[in-house]
Amino acid sequence: MDEKIIRPVDLKEKRLARRWTQEELARKLGITSLHVSRIEAGRRNISFALALKVARVFGSITVQHEGEVFLIKKNK
C-alpha cells in the first residue's frame, strides 16, 4: 500500500462521537491539530503507519486506497 495515498473516511465522525477536539486527537496521535484539520477536510492523506495509530486509538478506521474502501481494525 502506498504510504501517502490513504484517505481516512470516518476520522471526524469517530472524533466527534467521543466529543474530542482536534487538539485532543492530535495529542493522542502525536501530530499537530493543523494536521488533523487538514486530514478531516480531505486536504491531506495519511500514511499506513498513522492509519494504524488511529485504529489503536478508536479500535478501527475506515480508509480509502486506490478507489477501494478498507476497514483497519485493532485486534483485541
Automatic annotation (TrEMBL):
<keyword id="KW-0238">DNA-binding</keyword>
<feature type="domain" description="HTH cro/C1-type">
    <location>
        <begin position="11"/>
        <end position="70"/>
    </location>
</feature>
<dbReference type="InterPro" id="IPR010982">
    <property type="entry name" value="Lambda_DNA-bd_dom_sf"/>
</dbReference>
<dbReference type="InterPro" id="IPR001387">
    <property type="entry name" value="Cro/C1-type_HTH"/>
</dbReference>
<dbReference type="GO" id="GO:0003677">
    <property type="term" value="F:DNA binding"/>
</dbReference>
<protein>
    <recommendedName>
        <fullName>HTH cro/C1-type domain-containing protein</fullName>
    </recommendedName>
</protein>
<dbReference type="Pfam" id="PF01381">
    <property type="entry name" value="HTH_3"/>
</dbReference>
